[in-house]
Specification:
By secondary structure, the protein is mainly alpha-helical. The protein is built from 18 helices and no strands. Helices cover 83% and strands 0% of the residues.
Length: 453
């Protein structure tokens, strides 16, 4: 591409900048996934119903809290751009306002988590599973503020470029999670066995632990911004401005969860074997997506830094480097998935029918890997530039208007079955990737100024 707004061919140094910042963030994301995997594995030893309830309760929790988690990510452009501009006052205000908004978001999230059983029963879920899943959701309420504060601190520390403390935090949190699951799920050390509720309580404690560990390990970076005067940070107009910037990020990410959750519901209509195969496939692609997700976070920081220091050309080069890293990795993962789908599926199941169907679905999933990489990294680039509303509407178009309807038509009207659900996701991600890539090209072609603060 050419022209003043075009992305640039990244240099080796810029690719190195992205890789160095993204790598520890990827480790953190994988560590967070590992906590969920340990919960599922331990609940699986209790009963199939307990395992299903834990998974369903966690999905309901994610639906409720994702908007809040995304909204707090307004800290990405605010802190990163302020750091790039060496504006300590703006950094302090952003960090403090992020912590305040986390408190404000906790109440509605907690209220929505409480009636989990009723909502899940209304959605037609099996009563025995829905009751336990609702208990799981309610038991996560005490950890909601801890999670939101952790997200605020994590986004701030990432923007400072201090990712080492994040890795240490996640390692310690994973060790604690294993211990808490062992004690609370099965009943050890004099504690009664609580099953699904025990897993949720362990998760709640773990979220507060992550918040406190990160606060302690990152205190030398956070202290100047947390201990200053809070008067300006509590201004209603400033908090509303931050919500205006962050809420579209939350909705943007929530739409993606809805699309893949809807695909899960569609797949369940075909029976147990297709649903199990779908879960294997989604687990594999979710794991590969951790790399573009980490690259997306790195892009938000580096693009924000460049804009903050008044270097639009640097922002374009960092954006190009992030896309090269994220898309390059996803192209490699697509090749591997296409070459050995059966071997990958066999890691997760010994059931012949399940492995066979997962083997047929994985090459379709491989087809959207590159598009998933583009949309993931592009979202981070735009977030770093403070561009949140337009990407939200583009996501609504791709995931809401195109994604699920196409999956349903292909699967049922055209008789493609489970494969149709996944081809619908391919079409969906192609559309989203194309729209967000277009937005990156046009947005970075204009004036790149700091977001209102």
């Amino acid at each position: 591409m050419s022209g003043p707004g075009a992305l640039r061919v990244p240099s080796r140094r810029e690719i190195g900048d992205v890789a160095r910042l993204a790598a520890p963030i990827v480790v953190v994301q994988v560590g967070i996934m590992a906590m969920g995997a340990v919960d599922a594995a331990m609940l699986g030893r209790v009963s199939p119903v307990a395992m299903a309830a834990g998974a369903l309760g966690n999905f309901y929790w994610l639906l409720v809290t994702m908007v809040g988690q995304g909204t707090i990510q307004a800290l990405d452009p605010l802190v990163a751009q302020a750091v790039g501009a060496r504006d300590d006052r703006a950094v302090r205000h952003a960090v403090q306002r992020g912590l305040v908004i986390a408190v404000l978001l906790t109440l509605p999230a907690s209220v929505l988590l409480w009636p989990g059983t009723r909502v899940l029963l209304w959605m037609g879920q099996p009563p025995d599973v829905a009751v336990l899943a609702g208990e799981y959701a309610r038991a996560t309420i005490p950890g909601t503020l801890g999670l939101f504060w952790f997200v605020a601190l994590r986004q701030s520390v990432q923007a400072f470029g201090r990712t080492g403390v994040l890795i240490a935090t996640i390692v310690l949190a994973n060790l604690l999670n294993v211990l808490l699951d062992w004690v609370l799920i099965f009943g050890h050390l004099g504690v009664p066995a609580m099953g699904v509720r025990g897993a949720a309580l362990a998760t709640s404690i773990g979220r507060w632990a992550m918040c406190l560990i990160l606060a302690v390990l990152g205190w030398q970076y956070l202290r100047p911004h947390v201990r200053g005067s809070w008067r300006s940070s509590l201004q209603v107009s400033a908090l509303l401005q931050m919500l205006k910037l962050g809420l579209p990020i939350g909705v943007h990410q929530w739409l993606e969860i809805i699309a893949f959750g809807g695909a899960l519901v569609l797949m369940g209509l075909f029976g147990t074997v297709p649903l199990a195969a779908h879960n294997i496939t989604i687990t594999i692609v979710a794991l590969t997506y951790m790399v573009p997700l980490g690259t997306s976070a790195a892009a938000a920081v580096l693009v924000g830094h460049a804009i903050g220091r008044g270097d639009p050309e640097g922002a374009r080069r960092e954006a190009s480097a992030a896309l090269a890293c994220g898309v390059g990795f996803m192209a490699l993962s697509a090749s591997i998935i296409s070459l050995v789908p059966g071997s990958l599926a066999a890691i997760f199941s010994t059931e012949v029918e399940v492995v066979a169907m997962a083997t047929s679905l994985l090459p379709i999933a491989a087809a959207f890997q590159v598009f998933d990489g583009v949309q993931g990294v592009a979202s981070g680039i735009l977030r770093g530039a403070g561009d949140t509303r337009v990407p939200m509407w583009l996501n609504l178009l791709g995931f809401g208007v195109v994604g699920l309807p196409v999956s349903a038509v292909l699967a049922f009207s055209l008789g493609m079955g489970p494969a149709g659900v996944w081809w619908g996701l391919v079409v969906c991600l192609m559309v989203v990737a194309g729209l967000l890539a277009w937005r990156v090209h046009t947005r970075l072609g204009g004036a790149l100024e700091r977001v209102e603060r």
